[in-house]
Please model this.
Amino acid sequence: MNLFFKRAAVFGAAALCAVLCAPRNGAAAMESSSYCATISQSTNPLATRGMVTSPNYLATQAGLDVLRRGGNAVDAAVATAVTLAVVYPQMCTPGGDNFWLIYNAKTGELRGLNASGRAGAKATIDFYASKGLKSIPSRGYLAANTVPGAVSGWDEAYRYSQSALKTTMPWKELFASAIAYARDGFPVSTSLSYWSAVNADPDDKVFRDLQRFPEFARVFMKDGKPLVTGDMFRQPDLAATLTAIAEKGASEFYRGDIAKRIVADLEKNGGMLSLKDFADHKADWVEPIRVNYRGLAACNLPPNTQGMASLEILNILNNFDVKAMGEGSADYYHAIIEATKEAFADRDAYLSDPAFVSIPLDRLLSEDHGKKQAARIDMKKAAGPKAPLDPKGDTIWLGVVDKDGNAVSLIQSIYHDFGSGIVAEGTGVLLQNRGSFFSLDPKHVNHLEPGKRTMHTLNPAMLLKDGKPYLVYGTMGGEGQPQTQAAIVTRVVDFGMSPQEAITAPRWLYGRTWGAASNDVKLEGRIPASVVEELKKRGHPIKVVEDFTDTMGHAGAILVRDNGVLQGATDPRGDGLAAGF
Model:
């Protein structure tokens, strides 16, 4: 049993449940299932004065510290997000984007914030064509073609905290933990070590050999080798960058010395972002979109996010008796996978920047459309092959609820693990490769244009009950985000699971991953063999993967009970922590 408790010490109690609840046969399986439900329920942190959940334990504690010192949910979310940009650089940095759902308990208002960057003025289809390229490279300077939006999101959210929530927490203090970890160092987590090793593959010159970029190798390698769990990792350049933002504000990143350093490095190496691109950037407040699900309001962000797909899945499932199917049955998985195909067909046909493309959201999210989509689903047979789905991106989701009932659902990303692989010299800022998601086909709905935001897989979610937050939830995982969101919602709402039970339960992923030519359905190994065989009979191309795999993403959730008690959850597949007080 020592191994179990060692893992619990690293990953938290949720991971202990994951280890103890590996599949067994016969009576042992029933006993294991019962014990899993017991331990999963008992390890849900419960609190009344505030709750933070994130995919890294250091970041969660940074946010919780802000709540303890009188900050609100938005303040804590900023502190958590900034800290994640230091301790979880494989999935988010100041060089990425973020999206927010913010609930104001005093006014009952739910607001959306889009802090994604736009393509630079030089980023054109002709530019890439002149270099003989038919697609945008996934790595390198030509992949870093959109302005990083994350810092503008932190800034705009904090300004809202000042104006609407009347925070007394100084901006500078929200950066304290992050700056300390960047300057003094922190122990490399299991996830950071894993992705560091994956991206140091010298045999993969296209995607993984990131040490070919000198500044990346200098910052993220140790003596020419990948970071190892337990190593102390310091980022002095990033510490200086964050200190400048903390002292001078976000304008330093977009119009000051930081912007000049980033642009100088890009220009020296054939990049395409200019000082004007940085100076022109701004985050935008947007109206959240929503659908009804079992009497609850399921809320998400509008395009350019794929929030519409996440809501379409729930809108379709409204037409099925999910509860009668039984959680974990072949019918359950089949229905959600087929609903996902329907939702993704709409997403791939329409989703892009609404400033450039007309998207019929009212129709796509209507009850009538959901009924028509549901009617096309054959419960005995999987729909035929679909166009290959793009590989997943790597992302973080975090959630915060404070003592007053203010709530934040926030997602932040650099797209692929370690983004473009480009660290702007002298800044420590690892730049995203989100712009590589643009198509170079001028007929494609998401084709590249200067000033355009690309289609984003990122979409933070929230369920409202009687107009107030009931479930704050989300996940990393690109194509998996809408699917995992559907798993969490159905398991909590239809089957009465706790948030931790919903997240720990076996998951699936319809789509492809790095380098795959076609879609398949990946099932975690804990799913019973009988269910796997039944799904194969219905025509699903099945691939069984590890019991708890990163492929499924790192999810999190906070349930707000009717009596005000907050119940948090984090994912045993990552380094997360849900904690409250």
Remarks:
- The longest helix spans residues 330-350.
- The chain has a mean pLDDT of 90.
- Residues 385 and 525 are 24 Å apart (CA to CA).
- The chain has 22 helices and 21 strands.
